[in-house]
Design brief:
By secondary structure, this protein is an alpha/beta fold. The chain is built from eleven helices and ten strands.
């Protein structure tokens, strides 16, 4: 049986349309239930765009079912995702999660559902991820890394039970165990600073807390060797996004094979991630840090 898809949308009608249309090109879309969480406008200026998104949502067809939850007031991205995922996993054993700026490969749903089934009873695995950075070197067909991720992902009820929303507690544990450098991919990406910024109210990132929660519990996430997700939100359309192309990917034109993948952290893939992060920091560390940490009080309007 296919897993239900949670889609979180806000005020970008064109991004939402492209995300949904890409999903519909997946073979399993007609067998999948789509549950949409539509956040309310944060300001009067956002209302027209939110209304346009909501009007589009009523036209969506092609899935086994479409359910729309209209938030009565603005939740913001973090609260919307945390509460939406929590509510869905009280009803379902496993779910797939997308936001309104994630265009997927036609093989995305097949990969997600196959991996969710294959690793359903493996407590070492906390989640499945669909995006992978456009690294220069070769990656395995599929591989595991410690922690969790946020651009097109899936988990089980048991996996989400690992989530700890208390950023301060997570940071204290990272420091007590002296894991900051490993958490930051050997200092190549400022994840610890991002967590500190979340605690200080500089961002409201649910994703950094999801990563830290899984990392501290030594859980693994499965990644594809070729990306099945392209984030189209780095185009200055989001409240806290600017134009940034370094994360752009070419979607895989063939399925991801899962046979023979070892349930252990991939040293080769981790090294490729570190090299990728270091290249980005060399291109402009100030802008890189700003993008990572955020300059306002919410991660991104949701």
């Amino acid at each position: 049986m296919t897993s239900p898809i949670a889609l979180f949308v806000y005020s970008r009608p064109e991004h939402t349309r492209r995300t949904v249309e890409a999903l519909l090109r997946n073979e399993l879309s007609g067998e999948s239930d789509l549950i949409i969480f539509s956040d309310a406008a944060r300001t009067p200026e956002n209302r027209a765009a939110v209304d346009e998104v909501r009007a589009y949502l009523t036209t969506i067809e092609g899935f086994r079912s479409v359910t729309i939850h209209h938030r009565p007031h603005n939740f913001g991205l973090a609260r919307s995702i945390v509460e939406g995922v929590t509510a869905m996993l009280q009803q379902y054993e496993r779910i797939i999660v997308l936001e309104d700026d994630m265009v997927t490969s036609p093989f995305f749903l097949t990969y997600m559902n196959e991996a969710l089934e294959r690793f359903a009873d493996d407590s070492r695995v906390v989640s499945i991820h669909g995006y992978v950075y456009p690294v220069r070197g070769a990656l395995p067909e599929a591989f595991f890394l410690p922690g969790a991720d946020c651009w097109g992902w899936a988990t089980w009820r048991r996996g989400w039970a690992c989530f700890n929303p208390d950023g301060a507690q997570l940071l204290r544990e990272l420091k007590r165990r002296k894991l900051e450098r490993a958490f930051d991919f050997e200092g190549s990406y400022p994840y610890t600073q991002m967590l500190e910024a979340q605690i200080a109210g500089m961002n409201d990132s649910w994703a950094i807390r999801w990563y830290a929660s899984a990392f501290l519990q030594s859980k693994l996430t499965l990644y594809p060797g070729r990306s099945l997700v392209h984030n189209i939100g780095n185009d200055a359309s989001g409240t806290h996004c600017d134009e940034y192309s370094a994360m752009d990917t070419v979607l895989s034109d063939r399925p991801i094979g899962l046979d023979g993948v070892a349930v252990e952290s991939s040293t080769a893939a981790r090294e490729e991630f570190i090299r990728f992060f270091r290249r980005q920091s060399r291109r402009g560390i100030a802008g890189w840090i700003r993008r990572v940490l955020g300059s306002l009080t919410t991660e991104r309007a949701a």
